Amino acid sequence: MGKLIIFSAPSGTGKSTIINWLMAEHKELRLAFSISCTSRQPRGTEKDGVEYFFLSPEEFRQRIANGEFLEYEEVYANRFYGTLKSQVERQASEGQNVVFDVDVKGGCNIKQHYGDRALSVFIQPPSVEELRRRLEARGTDAPEVIDQRIARAEYELGFASQFDRIVVNDNLEKAKSEAYDIIRSFLEA
């Protein structure tokens, strides 16, 4: 039976880079992304059951009412994202160690549901100022979008203490190594 590993972080902290490195470079960890559901339409070459399970807004609401989600969020009107309990259990029963890349509230909900079967890891920027510098250096967001991301990051940083482990990403190689050691120890326990 696989274990569960939850990653949460403000935008721009390097969370996706760390997760992708762990999955690509450390196959021995048997990590597999949790396949989430969304009510949006598939984009490009996305396939149902691969990147996401694509549900209609009505079907999503029905599954919420049935208590089938570990966590979900209505990001915009009728635009839902969420994680089905049944999918997580299916992946774990196949021996996969299921990785969640979720917002802080979703991370706290999943951890609360699974307790010691799950490890929650919060990736933290060295400072809010450094986070702003990284977001500006990306060159992908308008200044007002960066301001929104910084405001959200300040809110999300308030949740860090609710996670099992905090990795401060002030040096990417060090943060990757620290995340690997934390996960390996958890999986071997």
Describe the structure.
The chain is α/β, with parallel strands linked by helices and 189 residues long. The chain is built from 7 helices and 9 strands. The chain has helices at 15-25, 57-65, 85-93, 104-114, 128-138, 143-157, 172-188, and strands spanning 4-8, 31-33, 36-38, 52-54, 69-76, 79-84, 97-101, 118-124, 165-168. Strands 2-7-1-8-9 form a 5-stranded parallel sheet, sandwiched between helices. Helix 1 packs across helix 7 and helix 5 packs antiparallel against helix 6 (143-157). It is globular, with a radius of gyration of 17 Å. The chain starts with a strand and ends with a helix.
Rounded to an integer in angstroms, the radius of gyration calculated over CA atoms is: 17 Å
Which percent range describes the beta-strand content? 15-25%
Number of helices in the DSSP assignment: 7
Identify low-pLDDT runs: none
Overall form: globular
Structural class: alpha/beta
Q: SSE order, as H and E?
A: EHEEEHEEHEHEHHEH
Query: End-to-end distance, in Å?
Result: 13 Å
Q: Mean of residue pLDDT? A: 94
Question: What is the total tally of β strands?
Answer: 9
Structure, briefly:
With 189 residues, this protein is α/β, with parallel strands linked by helices. It has helices at 15-25, 57-65, 85-93, 104-114, 128-138, 143-157, 172-188; strands at residues 4-8, 31-33, 36-38, 52-54, 69-76, 79-84, 97-101, 118-124, 165-168.
